[in-house]
Specification:
The protein is of the alpha+beta class. It has one domain: N-terminal domain of TfIIb. The chain has 2 helices and 5 strands. Strands 1, 2, 3, 4 and 5 form a 5-stranded antiparallel β-sheet that branches. β1 and β2 form a beta hairpin. The chain is globular. InterPro entries: Trm112-like. It comes from Chromohalobacter marismortui. This is UPF0434 protein C8E00_101430.
């Protein structure tokens, strides 16, 4: 995903910053707990299309059982 585009995008609900999860192809708002899909490098910034994140994701913790050490950096 283009870094300039990512810098301009904000959460449509709270206007907060988003983190790009390259592995899942999502832009995440940790404040609202929403994960917006990115389809073919195009962010889908509709709340109806967003996935509700679980508690560990909201706290920006690695997913259990995957050995993942994702830190949110792109």
């Amino acid at each position: 995903m283009d870094k300039q585009m990512l810098a301009m995008l904000v959460c449509p609900r709270c206007q907060g910053k988003l983190k790009y999860d390259r592995e899942r192809g999502e832009l995440k708002c940790l404040f609202d707990g929403l994960a917006f899909p990115v389809d073919d490098e195009i962010p889908v910034m509709l709340e109806e299309q967003a996935r509700q994140m679980d508690v560990d994701e909201k706290l920006d913790k690695p997913r259990r059982g995957t050995g993942e050490t994702w830190d949110g950096a792109s």
